[in-house]
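In this section we walk through a basic example: taking a raw amino acid sequence and producing a predicted 3D structure, encoded as discrete structure tokens. The instruction is simple. Fold the sequence below.
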Amino acid sequence: MEHSLSPEEELIQLREQVASLQEENDNLKNLIQQAKKTARSVIAPYLTEEVLEEMHKNKGQLTIGGERRYVAMLFTDLRDSTAIAEQMQTQDFIRMLNHYLEEMIEIINAWQGNILDFVGDAIVVVFGAPRPNDSASLNAVACAVSMQRRMNAINEWNREQGYPNLYMGIGIHAGEAILGNIGSETRTKYDMIGRNVNLTSRIEGCSKGGQILISSSVLHDGGDQIHLLPGGDRLVSLKGIQGETLIHEVIGFGRRMLPGYEKT
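The resulting token sequence is shown next.
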């Protein structure tokens, strides 16, 4: 015959159960917080702070896309990197490339650029998304000038390590693009597509190592702060782009000039 509990014993038992449930609940909350921190630390290298903040606002969902917006787009690429990679030890090449990218990422972040992709050693950056920015074109050109100016320090480090010099070309264009989340529920990427994205890539392809080439729309947005190479304007025919495109070579922004043009 089971012993029935007195009201006082039932109350004690109930309090113990509540305390146990509360402890389990606190432990679960701690685990969830730890999981969130771990997830953020894991994905942070692949997403910009703006995208991470938007995810936090929307309970982890990337719901910031699906719109047309006027943005500035910046594409970079290292010249002859494939040949360099074939001549170097793999470990040394990756170390050199990572050092270069770390320097570039620092500058891009400083100028409020959002890195959408790394394609090998190429970098795809958008200014003015996911958050609008009236200074998108200005920031893009200032960023590009800072990036090219940093190459001297990067190559000095390369020489100290016994690595070859690196030379980067940059193309910038401003225009309307479609921005949104591309993929599926299991894998989503915030990206941009459209004619102007392709045009930016083609402009970058015209650049030589050390050059910054921009479209007329960027020049219009930037105004007098953008310093152009005298006689550096030219019309080019770009693959997949109808008609000719006028491009301009940038040698400085504001008081910052590219190496070799300080007294221009």
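Looking at the output, two observations stand out. The longest strand covers residues 168-183. DSSP finds seven helices and ten strands in the chain. In the next section we compare this with other chains.
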